[in-house]
Specification:
heterodimer, A: 310 residues, 11-stranded mixed β-sheet, 15 strands, B: 176 residues, alpha+beta, 7-stranded antiparallel β-sheet
Chain lengths: 310, 176
């Protein structure tokens, strides 16, 4: 299915869904748009996961992307790129609550070097005001220096409603820039999470919806995450596991560990499945990872993933 | 019958307030704006119950389990660009507040004693790594996070803790 077909299908679903959504999500009768198809693999192809370990965050980011064929494989001249870090908290980089700014800065720089006309780094922060989160996390300085734009998505008008053909999720308001960008890159940090055990790439997508509380109060947060990940797929995932938070996530402060790793793949489920090992866990230990695999959002069985150590 | 119904309605009206000190009570413990501490605009929050997600996102359940019923939060700018987050948690009992405090304390990798002036009725501490301080009063726990790394940051945190501790002293025991 190409992007055009995916959009058409989404519009059709939107026209037929009357009611639904997670508890608390806004429901309207208006026609909803579609999510994103990501980069579907040809039939029979195995997803590739690049793993770069031992080094500095920027260097690891470059190595991981090079192992996938370079940023030019994803970003072309004149395109708009949206990057979604995990940038929810007023925390400094060493606390491992937010994505390392060096990883994001390097990625912005690579996208610009590949000819991107605009690189937006967007976040719906939890701590507020957002400008303070951006400052304390070091992200504002990193993005400015790399030639990107760091923007906050706090206003409801920044969101568009999409249809989601899930059991629990029916509609969701999503940051419009994510839906319309030529390239969408999800750049999470790996960390402990009180409600879902771990925060990984798919959980980070909660930061592109307007009403997060609706998911927290729903019948199954794991299912919400998995269904959404199947509907809104990034073109590329770059996982920051340079320093990970082991306890008291998602906000901390908690105990940390330094795996010094950056992972990259077009398959979000494979990235999340692999990352569990840095916590001494298996993919099956994180419910949304397995659910997402079953829903076809990616490959949870690492035996069926081509792993390239960069 | 009419009286019983009136009492029932009154009870239903008062029920949601049970276990809550109330916004004003918690808000009154926040430091006031001063020459050395400026309130950051748009940073005030007061939440109850499930709305703790607005502060802790998915971590909110841990706080509910610990008995936190309400939270007030305000951010400040201190000298030299120091950023200070003051979060005051309301709990139903002193025992719950103490247990909550101890659970938080265990997570702090390095504990630094604070000067006596900052000590409240319960405990106080600062962790050097994250400049993190807590004071436990009879029904509350205040958490402070300071960023800036200036030489005066610790003194500023201690001063704020001392102020909260002083304001949170319980009224003298009533008789009868």
């Amino acid at each position: 299915m190409n992007r055009r077909d995916f959009l058409k299908q989404g519009l059709a679903i939107g026209a037929t869904v009357a009611l639904g959504g997670c508890a608390g999500s806004r429901v309207s009768g208006a026609r909803a748009g579609a999510g994103r198809p990501g980069r579907p693999l040809p039939p029979g192809a195995r997803p590739v996961l690049a793993v770069a370990e031992k080094g500095k965050p920027g260097e690891l980011t470059r190595r991981a992307l090079d192992a996938l064929g370079g940023i030019g494989k994803f970003v072309r001249h004149g395109q708009t790129v949206v990057i979604k870090p995990n940038l929810a908290w007023q925390r400094q980089p060493e606390e491992a609550a937010n994505t390392n700014p060096e990883v994001v800065g390097t990625l912005v720089k690579l996208c610009r070097e590949a000819g991107a006309s605009r690189v937006l780094v967007v976040e719906h922060t939890i701590d507020s005001p957002a400008r303070l989160v951006f400052e304390i996390s070091g992200m504002q300085a990193a993005v400015d220096e790399a030639g990107g734009e760091l923007v906050s998505a706090h206003e409801e008008r920044a969101y568009s409603e999409i249809a989601i053909p899930g059991e629990v999720l029916k509609r969701e308001q999503v940051i419009r820039e994510v839906l319309t960008a030529d390239v969408f890159i999800n750049v999470p940090i790996a960390k402990n999470h009180d409600a879902t055990r771990l925060t990984l790439s798919m959980k980070n997508l909660m930061g592109i919806i307007y009403n997060r509380q609706g998911w927290h109060l729903s019948s199954s947060l794991h299912r919400c995450i998995a269904e959404f990940a199947a509907a809104v797929r990034p073109d590329l995932v770059v996982m920051d596991a340079n320093r990970i938070m082991l306890t008291r996530g998602p906000k901390g402060p908690g105990q940390t560990k330094d795996p010094q790793a950056v992972l990259a793949s077009t398959d979000q489920v494979a990235v999340d499945a692999y990352t569990t090992r840095y916590f001494g866990l298996q993919p099956a230990d994180v419910e949304f990872v397995m659910l997402a695999g079953k829903l076809g959002a990616g490959q949870a069985d690492l035996g069926k993933v081509q792993i390239k150590y960069a | 019958m009419r009286t019983a119904r009136a009492l029932l309605l009154l009870a239903l009206f008062l029920l949601p307030a049970a276990g809550h000190a109330g916004e004003q009570a918690l808000k009154s413990l926040l430091p006031a704006q001063s020459n050395t501490l400026a309130v950051i605009p748009d940073s005030y929050l007061y939440v109850q119950g499930n709305d703790l997600t607005q502060i802790y996102d998915g971590g909110y359940q841990r706080y509910l389990r610990a008995g936190v019923t309400e939270v007030v939060q305000q951010l400040y700018r201190g000298p030299g660009g120091l950023t200070l987050t003051v979060t005051i948690h309301g709990l139903a009992t002193a025992a719950a507040a103490t247990a909550f405090f101890q659970a938080q304390r265990k997570q702090v990798p390095k504990e630094v004693p604070v000067r006596p002036a900052a000590q409240g009725r319960g405990f106080t501490y600062l962790a050097a790594g994250v400049k993190y301080g807590v004071v436990a009063g009879p029904r509350l726990v205040a958490v402070l996070s300071g960023y800036g790394g200036q030489p005066g940051a610790r003194a500023q945190l201690e001063q704020v803790l001392a102020g909260i501790a002083a304001r949170s002293r319980p009224p003298k025991a009533r008789t009868g």
